[in-house]
From TrEMBL:
One of the GO biological process terms: DNA-mediated transformation
DprA winged helix domain mapped to chain residues: 309-364
Entry protein name: DNA protecting protein DprA
InterPro entries with a match to the protein in the record: DprA (IPR003488), DprA_WH (IPR041614), DrpA_SLOG (IPR057666), RuvA_2-like (IPR010994), WH-like_DNA-bd_sf (IPR036388)
Domain (Smf/DprA SLOG): residue spans on this chain: 81-289
Assigned protein family: Belongs to the DprA/Smf family.
Cited Pfam families: DNA_processg_A (PF02481), WHD_DprA (PF17782)
Amino acid sequence: MTDEKLHQIALTLVPGIGDILIRQLMAYCGSAQDVFRSTPAKLQKIPGIGPATSHAIRHTDVRQEAEKTAQKLGRMQASALFYTDDTYPKRLKDLYDAPVMLYAQGVADHNARRTLALVGTRQATDYGRRVTEDIVQGMKPYGVSIISGLAYGIDIIAHRASLAAQLPTIGVMASGLDVIYPSVHQKTAQEMVLQGGLLTENRPGVKPDARLFPARNRIIAGLSDMVVVVESAAKSGSLITAEYANNYHREVFAVPGQLNQTFSLGCNKLIRENKAQIYTSPDDLITAMNWDQPDRTDKPGSANTPPITHQFTEEESQLVALLRQHSDLHIDDLSWKSRIPMGRLASILLTLEFQGVIRSLPGKKYQVVYV
């Protein structure tokens, strides 16, 4: 493990600073090592950093604890993913509340092309089990990575169905990598490491706590192109995951259930309030994400790239410039950044797509093709 990585871990251990302040410190200082090298006067010029925080950074002995964490990760053949790393999940990087550090174990590709979260009640019915297994089977031809929370019920059913279907599956944990919760899922977790992986923002040794589960749910939502709630009570963690998914502009589906059944209430409520589309078959998910469409692999300057024949208007040029600055943007973000009303924006985007200048992505996002 590099010295910079040790300092990154150490930075997350300084009392009184969280993800937002860590990003501030990194933006002003350039590296975690330089944060610790900075003088109190320099640190206190950074917004949000006062005398107490600068003193904690300068005088709190966190290096030894960081080295212990690094040693534990080494024994587990696990890694620490800082938000500036190329290996950090790209789907999380642009989220306002993404963790600055993740700990990962296994062979999973955290930037897989297609990802789907399956979440639901811890007390799954036979109906919920069948639906979950059918969804996983429906994703098999498309090589979708299945994400869930390793909990009882729908979560563990989704992970085990993925293992059986030989699909990669990632368990997002509300504890350290060395604290499998619930412990009865230890064997499944070990199998997942060989075919997918485990992921958490909590360093080794951290035990599950009630406050950590909602935080875990935001990572599940953020990692996913789409979230499917299979069964849910009127109040449950899966509804929190769905709420995060909506906030992150992810597609959300809910499986309808029988009226007045406890574990149908949450799903039916999501559908009624237009916070989720109704799920009827795996085809619904595949169509929503365009996974049944052939991938476009043309690259800038390739022989297959068509010439530009379209003369851009001022608004079109503005949108193309915005998309060139980002890997992709959601239509809501495009509207906000460009100040173009949604109705006209949709028409302009359609014109650019017909011209082959941009392409639509799952989740109402857009990306420049070759300009």
